[in-house]
Every structure is written in C-alpha cells, then in structure tokens.
TrEMBL record:
Residues 1-18, 60-74 have a biased composition (Basic and acidic residues). This is Acyl esterase. InterPro entries: AB_hydrolase_fold. Residues 1-26, 53-74 are annotated as: Disordered.
Length: 74
C-alpha cells in the first residue's frame, strides 16, 4: 500500500520463467504482450485500455481467459 503509482500483478500457469520463454523467440506470448501494453501506457502515454482492467489478472489453467480482481491481499 506504500507504493502510490499504478500497479499490476499477473499470475500464469507454468514453472518459473516457462510462461515467458516463447516470447524470447519472438513468438506470440501473453507475458510480453502485457508488458509491452503496460510500458506503452505508462512510459509512452498511449491510451490502450490496460489502466481500465483489474490490477490483478489470473490466467486459468483450464480456460483461455483471465479472471480480474481488484486486489490480492496476502
């Protein structure tokens, strides 16, 4: 709660770093697509809608979609 700037937390299935691997090869990848959207919005000022999505995103293991949550309390 001490950080006052925009925040986002994303959970995806997989082992450590496996969700990102295909993006390193230049293939479509949710992790890098989301990162690019975040940087475009908050570093370049582009209005791409990422700031209107729930700040916590959870990708289902059984579905292709994401579930959005307003927070993720520990």
């Amino acid at each position: 709660d001490k950080l006052t700037g925009p925040k986002r937390l994303e959970f995806r299935p997989g082992d450590h770093a496996t969700a990102e691997a295909t993006g390193l090869l230049g293939l479509p990848n949710d992790t890098w697509t989301s990162t690019r959207r975040w940087f475009d919005r908050y570093l370049r000022g582009e209005r791409n809608g990422i700031d209107t999505e729930s700040p916590v995103q959870l990708k289902s293991r059984t579905d292709t979609g994401y579930e959005g949550y307003p927070d993720w309390k520990s």
